[in-house]
């Protein structure tokens, strides 16, 4: 195995987003759930270790990230990539103002790295950085929906300040004018900043061209910290070019199904589209069952509905509902309990569907995906072609599948076009035919 790039991602769907960008830039990528405990496929040259560390205390995030680093070091990766969200948010609780800085500094220390960058820019998803300020679409981060995020609010768009508040090391800026001049100018600016005692530089990027200019300047940097955007400029440093082959997955097999626990607006549209076009769909209403009904019992009922339909066409099982319906459920059952119980039911349904012969599974919803992947015992996924930005097909060993493996795609709430559910299966077959 020739592992070149080792990545540590602070959440699950963010890991898939990064893996997707690396595949599109030509790498063969495996995503693992936590630190790998089984050998990786021999032909992969990048690995993304998905942690769930974004909203945990800095000391715990540092410990988990260092454990992942130790594994990557044992594999002698050439470069380490710490991936965080393109809105640069992380834990914000009491006095704690984020864990990106502490994790970055701990990784630098463990790797004996004296300089790294920090840029969440992801122009394909409208995250751009100008003079150190992060824009979400046309507005500053601090004016975007992120200012009111329930867990990780972002009220300052100046990332040099945001990161400096989380770090002991000095934070500086490589601005858009320097980036526009190209990789030599960036390398010069890095030398200048180092001479001034700066150890971490926020880097402006307004476009993918900026990220591609940044790439060569990072060639000898042992640690890179970024959103998923910077990944597009790194594979070329190893002579890797975009190639259809990097997204190759084994041919798809088995029946098709969709499980959706996402209540995001985009998913609501996708469910409505599938139903309006005559798809077989089962709406799971959490209030239709007495409180505390075991998840397994509800799942059995759903699976009895699905079994006769499955051989003919994809089935959709969804709890997706609009905000007012969700509120009624939450008021009656409690927000956390309603969420966890619904996730459990859908996870049991996903596992049951796979036992019934489903080999191509679409899961909608970040938390829902986590529950389904866990119930399916999936610990490792090879990353294939992108269906829509940020959402690739994956292929995973799965002991519940009759063939021992499964194609699955995990769609985070607001991703994907309205026809995503049908488009996904079409894309899988176009991909495996190629
Ligand atoms: P997204 O990616 O859209 O945020 P998630 O799966 O991460 O989707 O989160 C959706 C949450 O809402 C999950 O905890 C899920 O169990 C819960 N949920 C799904 N359907 C309902 C419903 N009808 N009523 C209440 N909660 C629901």
> How many helices in DSSP terms?
13
> Which word captures the global form?
globular
Q: Determine Rg (CA atoms, Å).
A: 22 Å
Q: Which second-level CATH architecture of the largest domain applies?
A: 3-Layer(aba) Sandwich
Helix content: 25-40%
CATH class descriptor of the largest domain: Alpha Beta
Number of separate strands? 18
Main sheet summary: 15 strands, mixed
Structural class designation: alpha/beta
CATH topology of the largest domain: Rossmann fold
Distance between the termini: 25 Å
- What portion of the residues fall into strands of 2 or more residues? 15-25%
The overall pLDDT average reads 94
Q: Which hetero compounds are present in the coordinates?
A: adenosine-5'-diphosphate
Low-confidence stretches: none
For the record, what is the CATH homologous superfamily label of the largest domain?
Answer: Putative sugar-binding, N-terminal domain
User: What strand line-up does the widest sheet have?
Assistant: 9-10-5-11-4-1-3-2-16-17-18-15-12-14-13
Total domains:
2
Structure overview:
With 434 residues, the chain is of the alpha/beta class. The protein folds into two domains: 5-242, Rossmann fold; 248-430, 3-Layer(aba) Sandwich (Molybdenum Cofactor Biosythetic Enzyme, Chain A). The chain is 37% helix and 21% strand. The two termini are 25 Å apart. The mean pLDDT is 94. The structure holds adenosine-5'-diphosphate. Residues 261-264, 267, 286, 319, 321, 326, 329-330, 338-339, 342-343, 365-368, 412-413 line the site of adenosine-5'-diphosphate.
């Amino acid at each position: 195995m020739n592992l070149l790039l080792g990545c540590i991602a602070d959440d699950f769907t963010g890991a898939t987003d990064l893996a997707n960008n690396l595949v599109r830039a030509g790498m063969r990528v495996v995503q693992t759930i936590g630190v790998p405990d089984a050998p990786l496929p021999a032909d992969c040259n990048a690995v993304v270790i998905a942690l769930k560390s974004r909203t945990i205390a800095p000391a715990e995030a540092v410990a988990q990230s260092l454990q992942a680093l130790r594994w990557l070091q044992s594999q002698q990766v050439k470069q380490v990539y710490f991936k965080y969200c393109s809105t640069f948010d992380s834990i914000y609780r009491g006095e704690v103002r984020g864990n990106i800085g502490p994790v970055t500094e701990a990784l630098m220390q463990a790797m004996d790295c004296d300089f790294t960058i920090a840029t969440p820019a992801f122009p394909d998803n409208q995250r751009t950085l100008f003079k150190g300020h992060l824009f979400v679409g046309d507005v500053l981060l601090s004016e975007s929906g992120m200012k009111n995020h329930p867990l990780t609010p972002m009220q300052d768009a100046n990332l040099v300040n945001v990161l400096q508040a989380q770090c002991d090391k000095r934070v500086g800026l490589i601005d858009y004018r320097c980036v526009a001049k190209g990789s030599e100018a960036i390398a010069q600016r890095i030398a200048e900043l180092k001479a001034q005692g700066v150890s971490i530089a926020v880097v402006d990027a307004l476009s993918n061209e900026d990220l591609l200019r940044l790439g060569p300047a990072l060639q000898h940097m042992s640690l890179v910290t970024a959103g998923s955007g910077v990944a597009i400029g790194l594979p070329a440093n190893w002579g890797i070019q975009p190639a259809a082959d990097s997204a190759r997955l084994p041919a798809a097999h088995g029946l098709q199904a969709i499980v959706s626990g996402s209540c995001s607006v985009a998913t609501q549209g996708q469910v409505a589209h599938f139903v309006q076009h005559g798809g077989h769909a089962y709406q799971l209403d959490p209030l239709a069952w007495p409180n505390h009904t075991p998840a397994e019992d509800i799942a059995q009922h759903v699976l009895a509905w699905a079994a006769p339909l499955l051989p003919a066409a994809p089935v959709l099982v969804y709890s997706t509902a609009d905000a007012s319906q969700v509120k009624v459920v939450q008021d009656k059952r409690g927000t956390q309990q309603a969420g966890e119980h619904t996730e459990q039911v859908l996870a049991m349904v996903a596992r049951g569907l796979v036992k019934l012969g489903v080999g191509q599974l679409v899961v909608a919803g970040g938390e829902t995906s986590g529950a389904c992947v866990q119930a399916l015992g999936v610990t490792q996924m090879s990353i294939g072609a992108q269906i829509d930005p940020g959402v690739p097909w994956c292929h995973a060993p799965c002991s519940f599948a009759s063939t021992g493996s499964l194609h699955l795609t995990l769609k985070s709430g607001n991703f994907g076009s309205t026809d995503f559910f049908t488009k996904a299966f079409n894309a899988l077959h176009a991909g495996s035919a190629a």
